[in-house]
Every structure is written in structure tokens, then in C-alpha cells.
Write a structure and sequence with these properties.
mainly alpha; 0% strand
Length: 288
């Protein structure tokens, strides 16, 4: 552990922030040509059937093969999922360009995420003991992997459900005119949220290993975790999005408890100084 003054902390923070901004700028430049591909991936729920429609079709197909008489009696027929393709619209001249910039920024952040995690670790490293600093070898790679898994989980599981729920309100009297800025902003905001939420098990595991939190504390705080998950999810207006955000968030909390049970807790012990005994001086065994 290293003692630092308040000004030293500010200088260290400025140094880490500058490196993070440079890494994000480089990541954004590298992600600029990838932005159309990322945008197309975000718009997949507008062009393809949702995952629930695919699951429903697979289930009805399986039921029709296994129980043909029952499904015929109930009038259940496997129908391939159908979807009406939707296009996003924009009304401002440079709106698509600014959307392209936002997508490049978030994609660049994902590319620069290992550097960001490492700089954050270096900022907090002076407050750690020597035996605790080894966790950086787990924090950076597993933290990056957790962030990417959170984003992939959202794009492939949660996002199609939200869009499918939204488009279900269409009828002959009601049709959607989705704006590109609102659509992409909504998606990017949830991408960041899910990426951070999937970091929770790793963060709590490291905090448990260094002795800041323990298993009993987390078990007693389950109600608080449920409340916080609901409060964070409540910032999204529709009930489908609230449910899709709150449930994975609390599941990550339970996964944190399971990870701590599997990998154990640590104990934060300060480094002890070894007393130096002058040569030629006999010290009784009880005084050592």
C-alpha cells in the first residue's frame, strides 16, 4: 500500500483519464468502418422474427410431430414465423452521421475496454496490498469478457424481445415510424447497462477475495438487491424493458453469491513489519 496526498491522487486520476480518452479515440477510429455492420446488427429485430417466435414455432412443430392427434384437436398448427420488415426514418439532414458517430464511440469503447479496465486498476492499485495486486491478471481479461458477454446477451436475447413487444401494437389503424436516433440511443444505453451489469459477479468476487464484502453480507442484502434492480429498471418506461433489465440484473447478483461460494472468500490482512533484532543480543522465546 502506498500513501498518496490528495494532489497526488488528482494527478494520478488526470493521467489515467487522459490515457483512457486516447484509448477511446483510437478505438473509435478503428470502429468507424465497423459502424454500419453494428447498426445492421441492431436493426435485425426489425427484419427478422423474434427469438420467442422462433421458439414458439419450434415447440409447435415438435408437438405436432410427437402428439399429432392432440395438436389437431386443439387446432394447433405449426406456422413459420413471419415478420413485416421495418425501416428506420430520419428527419434531420445530418442525423444519420451523428448516429454513425455514436455507434463508433460505443464500439470504440468496447474495443478499448481492456485498456480502460487496466487504467482503473492502476488508479486503485496504490490502495491495495501486494498480495491483492495479483488480481489484475483476472480483472482485465475476465472483465472484458464479461462486458462483451453482457452486450451479446442483450443483442441476441433481450433486444429482440423489446422490439417484438413494441411492434406487437401495430394494427390496421396503428403503424410504427421508428426514428433512427431514438432507436439507436435506446439500444446503446441498454448495451452499456448490460455490459456493466455483467461485471457485477467479477467485481463482487474480487471484493470478497480482498475482504471488503463477505458471503453473509450479500445474502442478507438480497432484498436491497431486488429493490435496486427494480429502481434501475424503472428508468425505462415500458414494462417489458423494465422486466428485461431487472431480472438479468438480479440474476447477476445471485451469480455473484454462487461465484463467491465456489471460489471462496479472502481476508484483508495488512502487511506486517518484521522486527529486526541486533546481532549478538539474546531474546527470550516469549518476547520474539
Amino acid at each position: 500500500m502506498t500513501e498518496m496526498s490528495f494532489l497526488d491522487h488528482l494527478q494520478e486520476l488526470r493521467k489515467r483519464l487522459i490515457i483512457i480518452l486516447i484509448a477511446m479515440f483510437i478505438g473509435m477510429a478503428a470502429a468507424w468502418p465497423l459502424a454500419p455492420t453494428v447498426q445492421h446488427y441492431m436493426q435485425r429485430p426489425l427484419m427478422e422474427p423474434s427469438i420467442t417466435q422462433k421458439w414458439q414455432y419450434s415447440f409447435t412443430l415438435w408437438a405436432a410431430e410427437k402428439f399429432p392427434a392432440l395438436t389437431s384437436r386443439l387446432g394447433i398448427e405449426p406456422k413459420p414465423p413471419q415478420v413485416t420488415p421495418h425501416k428506420l426514418n430520419y428527419m434531420a439532414p445530418l442525423e444519420p452521421f451523428f448516429v454513425h458517430m455514436k455507434i463508433s464511440l460505443i464500439t470504440g469503447l468496447a474495443l478499448a475496454f481492456p485498456v480502460i479496465l487496466y487504467q482503473l486498476w492502476l488508479f486503485f492499485a496504490p490502495a491495495l496490498y501486494e498480495h491483492e495486486k495479483k488480481y489484475v491478471y483476472y480483472f482485465v481479461p475476465f472483465g472484458t469478457l464479461a462486458f462483451l458477454l453482457g452486450d451479446l446477451f442483450f443483442l441476441n436475447m433481450v433486444w429482440p424481445l423489446i422490439i417484438s413487444f413494441s411492434l406487437a401494437y401495430e394494427s390496421e389503424f396503428l403503424f410504427s415510424m421508428l426514428n433512427i436516433t431514438q432507436f439507436i440511443n435506446f439500444c446503446l444505453r441498454l448495451l452499456l447497462l448490460f455490459g456493466v451489469v455483467f461485471e457485477l459477479p467479477l467485481i463482487l468476487l474480487i471484493l470478497a477475495r480482498v475482504g471488503v464484502v463477505n458471503l453473509g453480507m450479500l445474502r442478507r442484502s438480497r432484498r436491497v438487491a431486488i429493490l435496486l434492480s427494480a429502481v434501475i429498471a424503472a428508468f425505462h418506461a415500458d414494462i417489458m424493458t423494465m422486466f428485461a433489465v431487472a431480472v438479468p440484473m438480479y440474476c447477476m447478483y445471485e451469480l455473484s453469491i454462487l461465484a463467491i461460494r465456489l471460489f471462496g472468500e479472502g481476508r484483508r490482512q495488512p502487511e506486517t513489519e518484521t522486527a529486526v533484532t541486533p546481532a549478538g543480543v539474546d531474546v527470550p522465546p516469549g518476547d520474539v
